[in-house]
Amino acid sequence: MSGRIMGTMRTSAAKKPQYLIENAQDGSLMTLVPAGQFLAGGPEYHEGHCKTFVSYLDAYYLGVTPVTNEQYKRFLDATDQEPPQNDEFGEDAWRAEEFPDEWAQHPVVNVSWEEAEAYCLWANVRLPSELEWEKGARGTDGRMFPWGSHWDVDLCQNDRTRGQDTTCDVWSFPQSASVWGCYQMAGNVWEWCADWFSPGAYKRYARGEFSPPSSGHTRATRGGSWFNAVDQNFRCAYRFSLEPDDRGAHYGFRVARSA
Amino acid sequence: MIAVHTTDFESREAHRSNNDEYPLATTDLTTTVQLSRWERGLAAQFPVIGWMRRRLALRGLAARREDPRVVRLVALALRHQDERTARDARTLLEGLATDKARDALCDEAIRAPHGRAAQICLRAGWRPTEEERECLFLFVTGQLDTYFAADYEFQNLRLEYERADDLLRRHILRVLRSGDRRCVRFFAQRKALAECNNLEIQVALRSFLKHRDWPRLFQAFLDLPLKYGLPVLRQLAGSGWLPPEPETRSLLSQAILDLGDLIPPSPRSAPAASPIFEEWLERGRQGTRSTRPVDELMEELEACSPVEGVEIVGALASRVSPGSEAASSIQNHPHWVIRLAGFQTNICVPLEQPELKDPVYWVERIAPEHPVLQLPPGKATPALLEALASTPKDGWRGPIGTARKILQQLMAYRITTGTFEKLVVEANVDDGEFELMTEADIESPSPGASTTP
Fold first, then answer.
1. Pairwise CB contact (< 8 Å): A18 & B360
2. Which stretches within A96-195 are classed as H helix?
3. Is the pLDDT of residue B209 over 60?
4. Distance (Å) from the alpha carbon of A74 to chain B's nearest alpha carbon
């Protein structure tokens, strides 16, 4: 079964998309995820509790890496937003509006969904939808992890291998880049998605009803983080959610844009 | 006024204006005798009879004004000392309708970039239809922004410069010495054809073909990857031209024989380029890294960010051979953009593989259209030749198999014979030493003077 995600995605027929672009406002590198069908969802409860289904998305760009501290600082410098604040556990990288140099290329954490949205608004991009995120991680063949279908604890930043570290450089683990060239679609930080989280959403998608949830209490997050240790958390189809104003040292985001 | 006297012809032919296929049947009737009579008429100086003869000449010319030879004659009249004659000539030229006639006027403008013919062209926005002439026209008339958008690495201008006579070279050099910093690179040694980008190569090949420059086309066949080389070989085969040296002659003959009726395998549809990626590569080629030792760069490549890595590969592009240890490191680099850079710069050419497999879609999709068609023969090494020779039997069949055979011959020849002279066009800097010219020097000679330099 195939369907078309309705919403903001449009493909320009006149302009042929480039495979790699840099967003001028925030310097995000974005890779093209071509239009087409892909396999989404899965039978596990956290994978949507449905059969793996065929979905279709128009072409879009997805951030090659999560948004970094360095990029987020540009946003703060240009706006009157508050710097990331640590509401939960983990090391707090930011001191006032500064962070140590060695953290420049680490993903920005302790940002709520609302702050991530504000960043996207400033940078002329948007958060990916759940399905966009999943296609960006999973490719078209329904693989379980970005690098294939076998779990390998050494291919992402996770609780079993991180030692004393929390997040890692966004360019780490290049060998586990997704098929479209996106880094760290598994591990390092949970990534905010644009959609409201609805446990039944994927069942609807599997039936061919592709409209995203219009309301909810929490927002979808994907990808697993340095704080997680169980392989299920790192599966491309694994769905998790948080309240939009939640912050944590293992929550970050990456950006998307229609092609 | 001349314009009034020519309206019959104009009205009959007006509906044909802007038609490239304008029939020049009338031109055929314009004999050399007539032309020379009109030329003499324009040059007539007697007070009354001279005016009559000029008027008659212009009337005759007006009726044939779309003939390029006529345009050249009328352009001479633009600078006639009799104002009315000059004005009538201008009116006539401003009404040119066909591309051929306008091209002829643009040629006059090129020869006198500050002259009245140039003013007419600039005012009307006319440019030569031919790509190289257009670049030359833009350049000598000082439309540098437009010129630099249209020409690459002075590709067209250099070709024109080569063919130019002294007067035209002076015009070109005058602009080159005008102080525009973009012009400085003209004096640098020109890139070898194999180092040019796709667009530049296409421009050069088109030009060689147009001018039937078989020696250069042959050199291009020897230097360029077979995706360009096979169509060139087909042209060479059709031309009947053979190089004078026995070795190269037999190489070309054998390649033509192998070519047979092969239709070169078409490359994949070109994916959209990524300007940002090209920018990184270019930064490497041009920046300070381009002069640093290879070993040092390879060491840096181990621990750099992907963007820096692409720049490093750009800096290494002309110095690392396929099949070398450095090439292998790049091809197996964990960052996909670095691997992609290796393929895009032809450092990585996995000839022994029937098809490239890479975990990242864009590397597989963009990198090699087909390695056999991508490899510049100039980058041949014994190791690479060996890799090619070890291709399984099936690899020598079909169109790619034929291409592989031709590539093998070329590579073997390059390795055993040594390097070929690069296709280099150099501007002689000494040519640039000239006296400042007045406008009168630059303008076309007045009627009656010799029209050919």
1. no
2. 113-123, 130-138
3. yes
4. 19
